[in-house]
Specification:
The complex is a heterodimer.
Chain A (H helix, E strand, L loop, with lengths): L4 H7 L4 E7 L5 E13 L2 E7 L4 H9 L2 E7 L6 E12 L2 H20 L4 H4 L8 E13 L8 E5 L3
Antiparallel strand pairs in A: 1-2, 1-4, 2-3, 3-6, 4-5, 5-6, 6-7
Chain B lengths: L16 E6 L5 E6 L1 E6 L2 E5 L4 H9 L2 E7 L6 E12 L3 H16 L11 E11 L18 H12 L4 H14 L4 E9 L4 E8 L9 E3 L3 H9 L3 E3 L2 H7 L11 H4 L12 E9 L2 E10 L7 H27 L16 E7 L4 E4 L2 E4 L2 H16 L3 E3 H6 L8 H18 L4 E5 L4 E6 L2 E7 L2
Parallel strand pairs in B: 14-20
Antiparallel strand pairs in B: 1-2, 1-5, 3-4, 4-7, 5-6, 6-7, 8-9, 8-13, 9-10, 11-12, 12-13, 14-15, 15-16, 17-19, 18-19
Classes of the chains: A alpha+beta, B alpha+beta.
Pfam families (chain B): GAF_2, PNPOx_N
GO molecular function (chain B): kinase activity
Keywords (chain B): Kinase, Transferase
């Protein structure tokens, strides 16, 4: 399914990016990504550290099932996308994307009063990989009565 | 293995926690959590206010993963856990509900976030997420007060012989232990469900005489539930309810409302109950401009001081009521000097002296009662015993905390620099000092 311009813009801004995956026993894992872009109209790409999140990387290679949330700390606006992921090694443009993202997040948190020392442990790109998710489902997750509402979901 | 109790700072809600679940068909789901609480060494509870998908997934597949972040160091933890139960009552439900109520009330959203149930999980493993940036040696935030200093303060409180001394020792002790901004609120008017500030430290405006209702904000929640409440990052709450509280600084002579002592830029707040034999006496409140200023130890220390203070206050009340009435002296000589205008509005018992608002409610009624006797009988000394017995005061509950009401009245008159003052005149006795001739008017409107 297609991502709207608004969402494509949102996921590329300094928002928190969380990747959910699961193993063969259907036990879930959480990983944190450091940079995202809308690659095509129906595809989001995120950069994450396979060193910091080995379970997430292993799960994504094994079965590709993923949920990714994008959440803006200043006002809690959040979206979640779900679908199948393919994993690839990060190229120079992915590293650049990640570097820009990390700088922007540090600045964003600094404006909210959080010190850089507090935030930096989350912004790791050692052994970077890129997860490309073909969007199957999209949800609003901003806290409130509309949380969890599907914007559109393709029939599977 | 890391133990759950080592993750104290992760449960303060500064950095949101996250839960991942997986549906029966293997589709993962992520939810941010408004609150994670430690139940015991092996269990945690979450309030999952709005996310139906998480609730559905754990019933189909109880295995979950959580990410918790230490709000002081930024260190991330992975918790693998198994859902065991959902509860809509009981002590852990009450604990989470209490915390949720307090933080939503602070944001002016009381009632919006009603807790329906909590989910309880057994924690199977805890692992620290690796990071090249180690901040463990340089935690952000205050250090906890030590046991020796706490013991010294507790002893000092216990040694006090009157209500004034107890309150002063309690607040001085707060300062000594690093709680730089603190206030003591005591039951002002149980019939109206109100607490009144009797003393504070570390504020530009003392707020003595200000009132807050049961259930309102952090302090009112503690009064209502009898449990301690802590907020570690007010900015999160403030962002949710930015406009609330803008109308705080108003003219008290017009509104007859005194503003609570408050730091406009507080980041951390904590309130603990003053309780004796299960009955609420008041609330001890503290706040800080630091994020995550109060950890578990701070909470325990403040609870120790509150317990000691509550016992000492109750004892002062009990002893004052037993004190033998001293011989009452008439006013010495003719009263002269300028006329002092005193107006008592009986609809809310507010009292104005020379058009300056003094106080309302029970304390206002007390002042009017004493001034009436001063004018009609020339009396300036009053015993707790006679005040308790005075039918005209219509005070069924006054026996519980007359001493604190008198203290409140005394402090408020001092603060407003009035020509009428109240002095402690020995155990269970007060003296009115009037610098002029009061012209007492009772206004029934």
């Amino acid at each position: 399914m297609q991502l709207t311009d608004e969402i494509r813009h949102f996921i590329a801004s300094p928002v928190m990016i969380i990747v959910g995956s699961r193993d063969a026993a259907n036990c879930p894992s959480i990983g944190r990504a450091v940079g995202a872009r809308a690659a095509r109209e129906d595809c989001a790409e995120v950069v994450l550290s396979a060193w910091q999140w080995p379970e997430t990387a292993a799960n994504l290679i094994a079965n590709g099932q993923a949920a990714i949330t994008f959440a803006r700390p200043s006002d809690y606006v959040s979206y979640q996308i779900k679908g199948n992921v393919t994993l690839r090694a990060a190229g120079p443009e992915d590293l650049e994307l990640s570097a820009l993202y990390r700088a922007a997040v540090l600045e964003m948190f600094s404006e909210l009063g959080l010190a850089a020392e507090l935030v930096r442990p989350w912004l790791v790109d050692r052994d970077p990989v890129v997860a490309s998710l073909k969007v199957r489902e999209l949800y609003i997750q901003t806290p409130g009565p509309k949380a969890g509402t599907a914007i559109r979901a393709e029939t599977r | 293995m890391i133990r759950l109790r080592e993750l104290d700072d992760c449960f303060e809600g500064v950095i949101p926690s996250i839960i991942a679940t997986a549906a029966a068909d293997g589709t993962p789901n992520i939810s941010y959590l408004s609150h994670v609480a430690m139940v015991d060494d092996d269990h945690i509870a979450i309030s999952n206010q709005f996310f139906a998908k998480t609730a559905a997934n754990i019933r189909a597949n109880p295995h979950v993963s959580l990410q918790l972040v230490n709000g002081r160091t930024g260190k991330q933890y992975r918790l693998d856990a198994t859902w065991v139960a959902s509860e809509d009552h009981g002590p852990f439900f009450a604990h989470v509900e209490n915390q949720l109520h307090a933080s939503s009330a602070q944001a002016g959203m009381a009632g919006v976030m009603r807790l329906r149930a909590i989910d309880i999980f057994r924690v199977d493993s805890i692992a620290a997420v690796p990071s090249p940036f180690s901040t463990e040696d340089t935690p952000v935030g205050a250090t906890a007060p030590d046991l020796e200093a706490t013991g010294r303060v507790a002893r000092t409180i216990a040694e006090q012989g009157d209500t004034e001394g107890v309150i002063s020792a309690l607040l001085a002790g707060c300062g000594e232990l690093g709680f730089d901004h603190a206030a003591v609120l005591l039951l002002g008017d149980p019939a109206r469900g109100l607490l009144a500030t009797v003393a504070s430290r570390g504020y530009d405006q003392s707020g003595v005489g200000s009132e807050i209702g049961f259930g309102d904000g952090l302090i009112g929640t503690v009064a209502l539930t009898g449990r301690s409440v802590k907020v570690s990052d007010m900015s999160r709450i403030r962002r949710l309810g930015a406009a609330i509280g803008a109308a705080a600084a108003s003219d008290e002579n017009r509104t007859r409302t005194i503003a609570l002592p408050a730091l406009p830029d507080a980041m951390s707040q904590m309130a603990v109950p003053l309780r004796v034999q299960g009955a609420l006496q008041g609330v001890l409140f503290t706040e800080s401009r630091e994020r995550l200023a109060f950890g578990k130890t701070h909470e325990l220390v403040l609870e120790i001081l509150a317990a000691q203070g509550a016992l000492a206050l109750a004892l002062c009340e009990a002893l004052a009521s037993q004190a033998r009435p001293a011989r009452l002296r008439p006013v010495n000589g003719p009263v002269g000097g300028r006329v002092i205008q005193v107006v008592h509005h009986s609809f809310d018992d507010s009292v104005f002296v020379d058009n300056i608002y003094v106080i309302k409610g029970v304390a206002g009624r007390l002042l009017a009662y004493m001034l009436d006797l001063y004018v009609s009988e020339g009396r300036s000394e009053f015993t707790n015993r006679e005040i308790r017995a005075a039918a005209s005061l219509r005070l069924p509950e006054i026996k519980d905390n007359l001493e604190t009401r008198l203290l409140l009245l005394r402090r408020r008159m001092d603060e407003r620099n009035l020509p009428i003052r109240l002095f402690h005149a020995g155990r269970g006795q007060v003296r009115l000092l009037v610098n002029g001739t009061p012209d007492l008017q009772c206004n029934i409107k």
